[in-house]
Amino acid sequence: MGERTVVKTTCRMCGTLCGIDAHIEDNKVVHIEGNKDSVLNKGRICIKGSSAVTWLNHPDRLYKPLKKMENGEFVEIEMEQAMDEIAEKLTGIQKQYGDNAIGVWKGEGIDFAQQEELARRWIHSVGSPNYFSNDTQCFASRYLSFNLVYGCWPQADYDNSKMIINWGTNAPISHSYWMQQINNGRETGATLVVIDTRYTDIARQADIFIKIKPGTDAALAWGIIREMIKRDELDHEFIDNFTVGFDELKAYAEQYTFEKVKEITGVDSKYITQMVDAIAKARPQVSSWAGTGLEHQSNGVNSIRSVTMIDALAGAIDRKGGMKTPAGFGMRGLTIYDEKPLLELEPIGAKKYPVLYERRQECHTLMLMDQVLSSDPYPFKGLVMTAANPVLTNANTGKVEAALEALDLLVVKDLFLTETAKMADYVLPAASYLEREEVYCNSGKQAAFITGKYVDNGLQTEYEMFKGLAERMGAGDYFPWADDHELTEWLLEPTGYTVADLKTNPSGFIFGEYEYEKHRRKVANGEKAFNTPTGKVELFSEYLVEKGIEGLNGVPEYHDPAYVQQNDPAYPYLMITGARVQKFFHGRYRNIEQLRKANPDGCLEIHPEDAKELGIVDGEKIKITSRVGSIETFAKVVHEKEIIRGAVQHTHGYVNQNINYLTYDDVTDPVSGFPALKSIQIKIEKL
Amino acid sequence: MRVVIVGNSAAGLAAAKTFRKYDKNSELVIVSKEKGLPYSRVLLPYVLRGKLDYDKIFIRGEAYYTENNIKYVEDAVTSIDADKKELVLEENDRMSFDKLLIATGAYAVAPPIEGIKQEGVYHMWTRKDLDALGPLFDTKKSVVVLGSGFVALQAAWSARYRGLDVKVIEIADRVMPSVLDAAGGKLIAEKIKESGVELFTETVTQKIEKCDDGSFVIHLKDKEAIKADFMIVGTGVRSNIQFIEDTGITAERAILVDEYMQTNVDGIYSAGDVAAGPTTFGDKHLTHALWPTAVEMGEVAGANLAGKKIAYRGSLNMNVTQMYNVTVASMGLFNDDHIDEAYVFDMDRYDGYMKVCYKDGLVVGACLVGDSEAVKLFGKMRTIIRKGIKADCAPEKLESFLDIKIFRDRK
Amino acid sequence: MKVVTMDTSKCVGCRNCELACAFANSKATCERTESKIKVNHYIEEEVLIPMTCLHCEDAWCMNVCPAAAISRNEETNAVEIDEEKCAGCKMCILACPYGNIHFDEEKLVSTKCNLCEGNPRCVGHCVAAALQFEEAEEFAERSRKKVDMRLAETMKNTCK
Description:
The structure holds 3 protein chains of 3 kinds.
Chain A: E1 4-10, E2 19-25, E3 28-34, H1 47-56, E4 66-68, E5 74-76, H2 79-97, E6 102-106, H3 114-125, E7 131-133, H4 140-150, E8 155-156, E9 163-167, H5 171-174, H6 176-187, E10 191-196, E11 208-211, H7 217-230, H8 236-242, E12 243-244, H9 246-253, H10 258-265, H11 269-282, E13 286-290, H12 292-295, H13 300-313, E14 323-324, H14 354-360, H15 365-374, E15 382-386, H16 390-393, H17 397-406, E16 409-414, E17 426-429, E18 439-442, E19 447-450, H18 462-472, H19 484-492, H20 499-503, E20 509-510, H21 518-524, E21 537-538, H22 542-547, H23 562-565, E22 573-577, H24 593-598, E23 603-606, H25 608-614, E24 621-625, E25 630-637, E26 647-650, E27 680-686
Parallel strand pairs in A: 6-7, 6-15, 9-10, 9-13, 10-11, 12-21, 15-16, 16-17, 22-26, 23-25
Antiparallel strand pairs in A: 1-2, 2-3, 4-5, 4-17, 8-14, 18-19, 19-20, 22-27, 23-26, 24-25, 24-27
Chain B: E1 2-6, H1 10-22, E2 27-32, H2 44-49, H3 63-67, E3 70-74, E4 77-81, E5 86-89, E6 95-96, E7 99-102, E8 106-108, E9 121-122, H4 127-139, E10 142-146, H5 150-161, E11 165-169, H6 182-194, E12 198-200, E13 205-210, E14 216-220, E15 223-228, E16 230-233, E17 237-239, E18 255-256, E19 268-270, E20 275-276, H7 291-305, E21 318-323, E22 326-332, E23 341-344, E24 353-359, E25 362-370, H8 375-387, H9 398-409
Parallel strand pairs in B: 1-2, 1-7, 2-3, 7-19, 9-16, 10-11, 10-16, 11-12, 18-20
Antiparallel strand pairs in B: 4-5, 5-6, 8-17, 13-14, 14-15, 21-22, 22-25, 23-24, 24-25
Helix pairs in contact in B: 1-7
Chain C: E1 2-6, H1 16-26, E2 38-42, E3 47-51, H2 60-64, E4 70-72, E5 79-81, H3 91-95, E6 102-104, E7 109-111, H4 121-125, E8 131-135, H5 136-158
Antiparallel strand pairs in C: 1-8, 2-3, 4-5, 6-7
């Protein structure tokens, strides 16, 4: 029995990155609780954070590489052999089919920073432009929206807000400590507005809760914009000096009368009045956030753009209590797009989604599935996947399974033998977030967070895998650092700080003071106010017009979601998928026994009137079908307040009720390529 | 000052604890007729059932008295000299007091049936009873229980739980009349029968005859006689006021006390099963013979003994037990002739029968045969019953009303 | 001494507290039945109450227990039930005016919050900061401050 040490580090059970105290004893984590000193979550974590102790010590964790034999069974092999064979096979595929016939897929599990950049670097270093990630369905749509309008990835300044608007997002479940910040804002008088099809956790505390038809949020946003203009609740100084496109915006807004908004969204005019009343009192301290509720629609990017316009008109951008526009920490990047762009090798999806590729160098996983099966425009045969489980989480599971099956080589790196890993030719065990060193950065707080290898199971980190493969494939020069530590030091160098410096405050190393209204200082210095093509907040995006995407003509027009445009009466119910639950995260954590006992199965949330009509009672087993597939699941009859009639909801990630057998991959946002996971048309049958 | 408490059970110990809270220095003596460490008779059925070990019945250790500066004397009080302020004891010399608390509790009574007072027929009231019953529960096969009150039915359940053949005899047409209403009584009667206990209502016992082998034949009026290896009698209790005669302290069936637990004699108090004090519903003198009431009265007495003039807000009868695989609970007024209206929750909600009773628009009581979760609602209702607060909601919304109200009113 | 305080204006009913409490007590499951803190959501009244034991100064459960099975932990100030002594008579459940004592149907004993030895898990998992672990006086002060701030805000708006 050794002694116990308590390390302060960062939780990576989801992307919120809360500060934790990890209690380590005999090279094992034995207890986790919130880090009271964390500048972010101040000692509070969700149940996933503490349940990590069970997850990280789970008996099913992988420690040795697995190779699938002829008979379909896995055998354990040594890492050297695994790496040699994988590299050989990858190189072989490239020789046979072309350099771009291989790709890398980085999943949610290893975050969006240091580890992601390793994947991006590796695939380009070995000659292919095909970098894929979970961002086909996650966050990138929002990223593009914000980016197109005011050139950055912002943070809502909830603590200082006087009005907080949340569209299709549920902070306590999806971004735990943001709820603390929202509550801080509310304590000093902020009005909370929640707009959603469901009466979610955060909606329960809303001062104004607006129930809305899925995918129609932008029409409401335009109604609000029109009313703001009518009542002159506008920050003219900001609009005149720091935006472009106001006239076009005003002209487009005109048609969104109360009646039209009500017809499209189902929302009564009194809500628009209430909102603009609140904006009038609160501006410029208005902060907005939009989540996957808007992203996972065929009009997602435009919807979120229109939401940001409210902030722009209120003068809230880069203002205290509004939307923070953080500058980074100044670390080095790992990507080599300038050096090896490889555009001539046709990154998959770059042509169809030029904005996505230009702004994020992101290829498209849904198109990948089609291309694997069709080899059109070129064959794709080998995929290295890490921290991802698309069999459970990607749209159209049937196609995902078929495509992964059709690959010549599938390598999956994970902590467990997931549903996707089971399909692989090679499975590589992964080091967890307590088993590697990296830097996370929260620019809104101007804080950097260093993690460390606090538990050593001898497991291969992401860096070690990419370095190992690169070396074997003739690209070793791109990975010269001996290990994660040396790499991290190199990445930190331009900041003037070292790992040791950051270790002096793992609860949040403050590297600067957040500067509001940077745009004024920049303009005074002759710099661009905002990082957009025009240097201003783009209410009208010329850049988008130039891309020539159908239906996108500058202002973020509202387009009816696909299910409205192509309503199919054979599938009369509108299914939202993917509402989060606190205990699990996408495909992960259902193997944590204590959590699974509390929620073993997925279910379909149904309005009581709809249930009555269908003759379905709570808990009953039912069959649901879309034009793509069908599953059996359980009915959950909710309170009439909790969802609108005609809409139903099913969370993803349950192996026995995998809702992605029903979701389609061919209805996507034209800018981001996001699938419309929040509006799948289905029919419901009793069994 | 010397304060003497006669009685070493619920009321006496509660009084001692409260007295010492306010007064750490005055002399405090507890006189107990029953020898040994104090125990709780509430626990007897649980020991007999096998849920608790015997040693768990004791609710204070020896150290308690020395730690709290309490002198403990084992003796019986035969009389009280109220003028001289002295206790007349059986063994020891007279004991003088400045203030006195009589908390001598109650004793179990038996109806005047031939053969009821002999070995093999017991009450389930004292530790002595437990010592006699314990071995019988271990070795015997059948028992007949006389009475269907709280204690009797608990005894019967413990025996049934242990696998004995059990018969219950009740003179009235329903069971547990002081705990449940007619409907509840009917429901628990069903549960009793379901568990394999034979229940004889409207049955008069004429004679209890012991056979040569030590077992019993119980002769019933107009019914066939029944047999048993031993018997338990649970037909009520009476206050221990035998020594009050000629003391000048006013008593009827129990010692009469006011809201300060004060008897008619200045400086002499009484509390618990031996006393009859004020109730929530305005009765001036009523004895509940319930543990929680004894505790509350003892606390009030203890405070007043220490010079704090604290008035008792009145006892609210409440009862709960787990038996025959259900929870039985009641509180306040619940009999149809005492209330204006009642609301019965649907059977599924509390897995049984739950009735909330109203009088003059106020919640005055409830009774339950069903789920243990429902007992929480009883606890929440206590405040509004005691304070006469109107539950401004439909009866089916009572739980949410109370949750919201008590949360807002919490300290 | 510290107690768990609850702010209903912040609670969103995420039930992280219940999950954490259930696991802390049972070491086996996060099912709600094992939790000593219960979040009651009254959807029609739009009220959310995360209710947990207040460890009353004058604890009625402790006073009434006929088995002397409930006592105060001197270190943490928590009112605790000794499962060895508890007979399962449920008098404490009848006594508690807040419904904070629960019954374990398997062990047939009463159970309740014991403040997790001074580091209450519910508070550590309350992502909305509706639960705090603080002196009762601190809570009173914050509540006063909140009312004052709201008053000031109202005055500011009316006197504009």
